[in-house]
Amino acid sequence: MKRIFPVIVSLITISLLGIIFVQVSWIRNMVELRQDQMVKRVEDAGAEVAAELSSKASTGAGMKLSRKSMLRLVPDDFNINLIKPPTISQYYTQYEIQEKLQDAFEKRDLRKIKFEFAISSNSTLYNLEMQSKNFVSEAQDEENNKTKIIAILPESGSQMEGLVPYEHLILIVPDFNKQVWGSLKWILIAAVLFTLIIIAAFALTVRTLLRQKKLSEIKSDFINNMTHEFKTPLATISLAVDALRNERVQQDVEKMQYFSGIIKEENKRMNKHVETILQAALLDKQELKLEMKKVSATQLVQSALKNHQLQIQDRDGRVELNFNATKDSIVADENHFTNMISNLFDNAIKYSKENLMIRVTTFNHGKNLCIKIEDNGIGMNKETVKRIFEKFYRAHTGNIHNVKGFGLGMSYVRTVIEVHKGKIKVDSTLGKGSCFTVEVPLAD
Predict the structure, then answer these.
(1) Pairing of strands 318-323, 357-365
(2) What CATH number did the domain enclosing 252 receive?
(3) Structure pTM?
(4) What are 153-162's pLDDT values in tens digits?
(5) Domain interval for residue 258
């Protein structure tokens, strides 16, 4: 697992970067292609409307005189002023040309493209005969807008063909690049979405692998701890049995009782370990059966403390009791709640230093009862505080076996508190001790 994990992460990372690179390249090419397509379609739409307008371009009534007729009928000093032909603006309104352009744009799938237009008597933006509402303001922004000028050529054979300047249709597409990106909005959203899904799948895969690696380490640690916890009482029982077989021991009643007592205590110890493991299995299956009833929390704390009196005495420790709660009745399972408090005491004793001191305080907080258990032990760092309630997790103390247990006690504490609709808070300073505060609802 240690060797293959970096390889898997590296391969997935390279693949993900490759996919992102291809996506970016594809999007860039797609935008350039869409820009070219849009320019071509705008030109085609403008050319279609210009062709329709050309039937009216410079076709007003006028005189059609041959060169010979002009020379024969007109004196040399006579000036002829041709009648100025009608313009496009005299045949069509702004709204009519707007409609023609809109129809031409819709034919070319440019329905959502915004545009401005004008009719000019020449190819410049100054001699305008007609313009749309925002044409003048948009014409000033040459950097962001795309402008197309299309000549409106008179029909072939018209009277004024080649005699007068052409009119021009000027089209402006405001915020051209922005509109190009807007036309690709859903495609881009889909591309980004699927890329994010791939990234999320990658992150989930890595997280799963890390979790599996962590579970594997926890499993190995648990097996090592369990082996040690069962090996010690088994070895003690084996030695006690060998002693009982000794003839001298068999003849001494006191020694017989002593060694048989050792066997009984070690058997209880093994049964306790088995019960802890079975209890953890029930918690996993959420099959913890509770017999809830109204009880005195103070009595449960005292009962749990009583079970640890010998351990505290062995450590030359002392206990300070401050039962300040005026109301201590709660609805709880007597057995599991006592075990939960007992685990907190056991934790304080196991991780204690010399001159063990445990302070137990109860007080009321609103409609809740608080039970605070403080010790002056070795304390915990921030990482341990964060993970203290994880199943199988055990705080490192230098020697893996100097503190007994499977790492199930605090996980059990959190589960019992949760099923009692309470909560627990942990404060700890490395080298100074820890404080666990249990808060549960008071009975009505």
Answers:
(1) parallel
(2) 1.10.287.130
(3) 0.48
(4) 776 554 444 4
(5) 211-284
